[in-house]
Specification:
The chain has a single domain, classed as 3-Layer(aba) Sandwich (Rossmann fold), CATH 3.40.50.300. The chain has a 5-stranded parallel sheet with strand order 2-3-1-4-5, with helices on both faces. The chain contains 7 helices and 5 strands; from the N terminus they run E-H-E-H-H-E-H-E-H-H-E-H. Helix 1 crosses helix 7 (153-167), helix 2 (31-42) packs across helix 3 and helix 3 (51-65) runs parallel beside helix 4. The chain is an alpha/beta fold and 168 residues long.
Length: 168
């Protein structure tokens, strides 16, 4: 099964995705980790474009083809990116669950963004202004929406886990 997490930075998706990955004993694929590794290897601070996603797609597909569960953690801001994840799951004959994490409390979201500490060495976190200006296309397909302003990360992970359990 492929479990895709999407949402703006600071909504809580990484915290929830990591809890769920541990609970499901899933492979955990995080775009920020991949991109930072590429930047560090190239000794640059310039963006890597789509390269991080391309690596993540292949890592996810390899694990899915082995029969594993994969939790993919990324902003996934564009419809085309979300469609590619769906195609990866289909090509591996895997089920897919898409989760969008939002934070409906703007003040809380801003507080989180402004007070976070990078958990990846060398990773630069976006500012609140950058998060607000980030391109993020609205969803047109079905997904599970988690509002991290109204539910704790452990409860959100449990809710997703229950959704997964119901699909098996």
């Amino acid at each position: 099964m492929l479990i895709i997490f999407s949402g703006l930075p600071g909504t809580g998706k990484t915290t929830i995705a990591q809890i769920l990955a541990r609970r499901c004993r899933a492979a955990y694929v995080r775009i920020d980790t991949i991109e930072q590794a590429i930047l560090s290897a190239l000794h640059t601070q310039h963006g890597v474009g789509a390269l991080g996603y391309l690596v993540a797609y292949q890592m996810a597909k390899a694990n899915l083809c082995l029969g594993g569960t994969v939790v993919a953690d990324a902003v996934n801001p564009l419809t085309s990116i979300r469609e590619t994840w769906r195609a990866i799951a289909e090509s591996a004959n895997s089920h897919i669950v898409e989760v969008e994490v939002v934070c409906s409390d703007i003040s809380e979201h801003q507080r989180r963004v402004e007070n976070r500490k990078a958990d990846i060495p060398g990773h630069t976190l976006p500012t609140w202004a950058e998060v607000q200006q980030r391109e993020y296309e609205p969803w047109s397909s079905h997904r599970l929406v988690i509002d991290s302003a109204t539910v704790s990360a452990p409860d959100a992970a449990s809710r997703i886990f229950e959704t997964l359990d119901a699909r098996n």
